[in-house]
Fold this protein.
Amino acid sequence: MSDDDRIADAMGRMPDVLRNDADWAYFQAGLDRSALSVLGRLGHESNPNPKRRLRVIVSSSSSGLERRDDGWWWNPQALSWQEAMARVLPGGGEVAVPGGRRVFDLFLGIGYDAFHLARAEGVRIPGGVALFSACDQGLGAEAILAGRGLKPGERRILDPAVPVSLTVWTPKGETDA
């Protein structure tokens, strides 16, 4: 995200200024470790799934939880997260939440075991889409995460040339999440 807590431009697209090879490699490694990815419909439609990873697509177009050819479609207004996971991932496993903003907001309520906050430092995207809805009311992403009981781990530099930094926020402030 940018210094002004934006994850996309005003049209909802990720601008080139937020794209970074080191961050992408870290992100992909996280998805590879996960048993499941949860993202919104627009993110699902915009990002092909060539590795055929198991996905849950958050969408109000689902009546609850539906298995479709491209993944599980889940409407959180119709079925709880716990009920959905009992069907989708009955044996448990790591869940990645690549987002969109509505999905990030949703999981603020469900809870995060870890939130990996990557920042393209020195970048601003005026009028862009905020990481969390509350960022549009003047709250910073870090304050929002802290308000949910998460604590920052050590700040790491993923790419010193840009720079792109990473801080993993966890309930205990652990950095190995």
User: Anything to note?
Assistant: The mean pLDDT is 94. The longest helix spans residues 21-33. The first strand starts at residue 6 and ends at 8. The two ends are 19 Å apart (CA to CA).
